[in-house]
Amino acid sequence: MITSRDIVKFNTGGHLLLATVVLVIVYFLPIKYLVSVDWMREDFDYCFLIPLVIAYLIWEEKDRLQTMPSRPSWIGLVPVFLGIIFFLLGEFGGEYLSLYISFWFVVLGLCWTRLGWQKIKIILFPIAILLTTFPPPSFLYSRLTMGMQLISSRIGEKMLQVMGVSVYRSGNVIDLGVTQMQVVNACSGLRFLIPMLIVALLLVYFFKIRLWKRLLVLASAIPLAIVLNGFRIGILGYLASEVNPNLIEGVIHGTTGWIMFFVGTGIMFGMMITMQKLESPSQPRQIPTALPKPFQPTDTLAAISPVSAPFILALSFILTIYGFTQIRHHDTAKTPVTKNFAAFPDQLGQWAGQKQVLSQSIIEALDLTDYVQIIFRKPSIPEVNLYVAWYDSQAKGESIHSPETCLLGGGWQFQDKREAEIDIPGYAKSPLRVSQVVLRQGESQMLAYFWFPCRGRTLVNAYELKFYTFWDNLTRGRTDGALVRVITAIGPDENLSTAESRIKTFLNKALPVLDTFLPDN
Predict the structure, then answer these.
(1) What DSSP character marks residue 428?
(2) DSSP assignment letter at 346
(3) pLDDT at residue 358 in the model
(4) Largest CA distance in the chain
(5) Which residue, 516, 492, 270, is CA-closest to 372?
(6) Do 99 and 90 touch, CB atoms closer than 8 A?
(7) Positions of the chain with pLDDT under 50
(8) Cα separations (Å) of 369 from 139, 372, 388, 461, 481?
(9) Which of 16, 90, 173, 213 could serve as a FRET partner for 355 with CA atoms 20 to 30 Å apart?
(10) DSSP letters of 165-178?
(11) Dist. CA 307–CA 154, nearest whole Å
């Protein structure tokens, strides 16, 4: 005999299958990129374990979920609509992170529309943990970790000096004499920072003690990661200096990272256990004497209804927007560059240039269509480095890379960064809007100008770049654009205004030529 419980189980399974099919259709490519590209990066390989953690957390709550009925809710459409907005931003802005966030909001919204708020509260933490599987953009991740890497480098330097190792540090580069350690690359840039934060979140979730104590454990994850990474650098530096320089790479390099991760986990676990034991006994917890009575569905319309209106409406909206984006992509035409950058002249007036060739691995990492990099020299003055990267389309995962990422990754520190309008005498489009940066590494200083010529606009930061890529793709069907970066050294006997004047003199010759290589509005 078929009971109302059987009908509810059938409806729940059918809705789960329907939602899975829709999510696979809409998010197949973003999730494929997430797993096969983003999770394969060394700093984010921990993400493969997170789905198992989420499954366990939900399984732990199965008894509570069975004690209450599902109450479909129209409020769940709010996160669905937010997910649709992020989906449009990701599809037309060429940004995978927006698509990942869209996926998260849609999953939350579909669960909410189908299960209701009471059940969502039970599984909200496992759903929130899903956010930790989405790596932040490279430029943002570099900004977040650069200051922490510098502190770790200093700790490693001091530790090596205490052990009697002669060491010289410039930014994140530690010179041991026999070899150099670059903390940004060789030490994985605090690769265990996010996993330690996840462990702290799990401890806070499972150990029900006072809020301020849980916040203390959570806050300890970041300084612990920094300090332990500094100890790791010191250990690797000592092994490289006293045993074998090759030991800073390979198995030992990875093993020391895992050791520090488990040490940090043990410290946080010990903190939590200690504070739990010190918890005041004057406020005993209320332990239920019996579990609530399991939900017994009755033969009512709410129990046997084959569909949930908010849930089905949410799926309809998602599929409609997905269909619109696919039609719009089909109609979008790419805009080719007017000239090949191989033809860019290496002589601009008195400026004589020497073209540089990027390695194939760097070209693939940048996803660019064409580029030119030339070091221009003029008698008796420091050289000027011109780099232009052209993208005929900024599809997902193939957007323009901000130079801030590579400059920071090379160990340069930003002394001053601001937006400026520089006057180029004789140039028709003067004044030119640029991002101006003064960089320092040790005693060396550089002045850099960069900007993004995109479809008739001159943009100066990554946020503008993302917004107008989205807007122009949606309204004009174009996503082409370029990065222009000009750098010159600030000599020991020079001031900033001298370097600025040198770049302006160079741009006076270079910009009219460059304009013939980039399509305008």
Answers:
(1) T
(2) S
(3) 87
(4) 96
(5) 516
(6) yes
(7) 1-10, 184-189, 282-306, 409
(8) 20, 11, 11, 21, 10
(9) 173
(10) ---EEETTEEE-SS
(11) 61
